[in-house]
Specification:
By secondary structure, the protein is mainly α. About 70% of the residues lie in helices and about 0% in strands. It has 18 helices and two strands. A two-stranded antiparallel ribbon has the order 1-2. Helix 5 packs across helix 7. The longest helix has about 35 residues.
Length: about 425
């Protein structure tokens, strides 16, 4: 979008802001560049320094866009002190970390990347944020299908005919395809945006990527988005004691699901001749739980446990027979890195965010908050088998943090009104 100004033709600031945030989010998505730089087996270990350097433009864009709006960003920070304390804890944990240099470097990366979340929460409305996410995710979906046509050898996994698109692994494409599906459904449902044709086209591309990736976790997350959407709509229709009882009922159902999900999945997998260890996760979790018990209060330090310099990590790798990069469970990794203190902060942040999100959804005209509530809940579910809580330079964690910041900030404004 261009406008005439007294000094000539200029770029409208909000359009520049939208484009800059889109570029930063794309860099955090881990799309395209890691795939092009990876070795034939998909490993990026030899080019990690180059990939870290690619995050610097995202930091620079964020700082440049944030500079004119520091007051708004600081207002968001003041209204989210619990979340800000959780985000600062990884930096503080370098004091007791088993690998202080690793923790410090990764904690700085985390803080620099989540600055984008504070900027988005201060400058974007839910609808504008939805358009931004649809744009970035849509580019990734269309790009993945285009890569399949232009270079099938890159677009497919090395040993199996499963699509990874412009990502390094099919599961990562599956996560992004599931998120893109949720966002495009929200775009189709919101008639005020006038982007129904775009939403329909990108929805088809997202579903195609999801099905061709054959990612079971991503399909499960997408299926759970339906009940989550129904639950939030039900919360929005009631108030007072009825809402409290409904929340308790949903929480009990979710607790029952967690208790029986793993045994049931093992039974189903065994009955169809599949891996009943959830691709090695169950033996890994048993080993991780033992390590959590060794340092229960403050943990081993943010993202320090899985470093090669830690003998405890090598003992787990030797026991399970593979070099797990993390615990494949966000809650366990939080306990492992930050102990019970970090875990309690994380749980408080999640519950507080969902409470504020539901309150915003319940107000008249609050339907534009539905997709954000569903995204937060599905992100939490994803962390039952993956580890994306407090991930540095990570698209999903930036968007999750943005949603929580927006919930608290707008809920505070709603209370004052």
């Amino acid at each position: 979008m261009l406008r005439n100004s007294a000094v000539g033709l200029g770029v409208e600031w909000r359009a520049l802001e939208f484009a800059g945030c889109a570029v930063a989010l794309f860099l955090y998505s881990g799309a395209l560049f890691p795939l092009l730089l990876a070795s034939p087996d998909g490993s990026v270990d030899s080019v990690r320094s180059v990939l870290r350097a690619l995050q610097v433009p995202a930091y620079a864009i964020t700082l440049a866009l944030m500079a004119p709006h520091l007051d708004a960003v600081l207002k968001v920070l003041r209204r989210n002190l619990v979340l800000s304390a959780l985000l600062l804890m990884p930096l503080v944990s370098s004091v007791w970390s088993v690998s202080g240099s690793v923790t410090l470097r990764r904690a700085v990366g985390l803080l620099m990347s989540v600055l984008l979340a504070y900027l988005l929460a201060a400058r974007f409305t839910p609808r504008r944020l939805l358009l931004l996410l649809v744009s970035v995710l849509g580019f990734c979906m269309v790009g993945s299908l285009a890569m399949l046509v232009l270079s099938p050898g890159l677009a497919l996994m090395p040993d199996v005919p499963e699509l990874r698109g412009i990502f390094t692994h099919k599961n990562v494409l599956g996560w992004y395809a599931a998120a893109a599906t949720i966002m495009n459904v929200a775009l189709l449902a919101d008639r005020s945006l006038g982007r129904r044709r775009l939403g329909l086209a990108l929805l088809v591309a997202s579903l195609a990527c999801l099905l061709m990736s054959q990612s079971g976790t991503s399909l499960f997350i997408l299926l759970m988005a339906g009940p989550a959407c129904a639950a939030f709509l039900a919360f929005a229709q009631v108030a007072g004691l009825k809402r409290l009882l409904l929340v308790v009922a949903v929480a009990e159902l979710f607790a029952i699901f967690l208790v029986f999900a793993v045994p049931a999945s093992v039974f189903v997998l065994e009955s169809v001749g599949k891996d009943a260890t959830l691709t090695g996760r169950i033996p890994l979790w048993e080993e991780v739980d033992a390590m959590i018990a060794q340092r229960p209060v403050l943990g081993w330090g943010y993202e320090a446990f899985w470093s090669e310099a830690n003998p405890a990590a090598w003992s787990i790798w030797a026991s399970v027979g593979w070099n797990a990069p993390h615990a494949h469970n966000g809650f366990r990794d939080t306990l492992l890195g930050l102990g019970l203190v970090g875990f309690v902060l994380l749980v408080c942040v999640i519950l507080r965010g969902l409470r504020h999100g539901t309150a915003l959804l319940s107000r008249p005209g609050g339907s534009d908050w539905l997709w954000a509530n569903v995204f937060v809940s599905t992100f939490v579910l994803l962390n039952l088998t993956e580890s994306t809580f407090l991930s540095s330079n990570d698209f999903f964690f930036v968007v999750y943090t943005t949603c929580l910041l927006m919930f608290s900030t707008h809920a505070a404004a709603l209370r004052r009104a």
